[in-house]
Hints:
By secondary structure, the chain is an alpha+beta fold.
Amino acid sequence: MLPASNRLRRSDDFRRAVRAGRRAGRRTVVVHLLPPAGPDHARSEPSRVGFVVNKAVGNAVLRNRVHRRLRAVMAARLSELPPGSLTVVRALPSSASASYDDLVADVDGALSRLSGPR
């Protein structure tokens, strides 16, 4: 489970991460990553993650399943994220039919691309 201190809650944080952060897309997800503003900010704040699973993914049952799976994937990868960063994981419609392993592979691929050099 994703700890409460590592969850994105405010719409301003989502907006900032999506608009100003780097983006990497895969078949089932798009990951937006906004690194911390400065070195002092990074030490004081934990990395935070938010999820966007809209109605294009499917009905409420499918959306909740995708959200739970993505939350579990990101909870296991919190230590890999830069401290103080904002991450938004947006599920694409193809995520509804994807297996858990497919979601893991797509999130890992997106995060590895984002962690590389600009």
